[in-house]
Design goal:
single chain, 150 residues, alpha+beta, 2 domains, two-stranded antiparallel sheet, 5 helices, globular
């Protein structure tokens, strides 16, 4: 229980802030949720198999949405860059050599080619496809988190 008039300082790997009296519970709930989502993302990423794409291919790199947590890990792009990408029906992070954020690409991007529901148009795939349970969990996460256009 917090005492009235007590200022609380919270520091984690993700943030450091001071909460004034009476405001901590709302903020802690938000950051706990964010931390839980980051843990969910990390756990799901570990369970999605990877495979080698066809060099130069970007057939699955269209505009996608992602959670705020995943978006916060990507470089910020200007409105002009977003508009140009949308005009070309491509991801704003697609560069001349492919995905410029490959290591941080969103869950939906990682899922492409790893499930029969989202096959690679070039027939590439991992040795073992993603487990159906993990695919359902990814879609559940997407359906139940605030999504923003990448």
């Amino acid at each position: 229980m917090l005492l009235p008039g007590i200022v609380v300082v919270v520091e984690t790997a993700l943030f450091s802030t001071v909460f004034p009296p009476g405001k901590m519970s709302f903020h802690l709930e938000f950051f706990t949720s964010m931390n839980n989502n980051q843990e969910i993302i990390a756990r799901l990423r570990e369970r999605i198999p990877s495979f080698e794409c066809v060099p130069g291919c970007h057939d699955c790199c269209g505009p996608v949405t992602t959670s705020s947590e995943e978006m916060s890990r990507l470089p910020v792009k200007s409105d002009a860059e977003h508009d140009a990408a949308l005009d070309d029906l491509r991801c704003v992070h697609l560069g001349p050599q492919g995905c410029t954020v490959y290591g941080e690409r969103p869950l939906i991007c990682r899922l492409f080619g790893t499930t029969p529901r989202m096959p690679c148009p070039n027939g590439r795939r991992p040795e073992e496809m993603v487990e159906p349970k993990i695919e359902r969990q990814v879609h559940h996460y997407i359906a139940n988190t605030r999504q923003v256009l990448v």
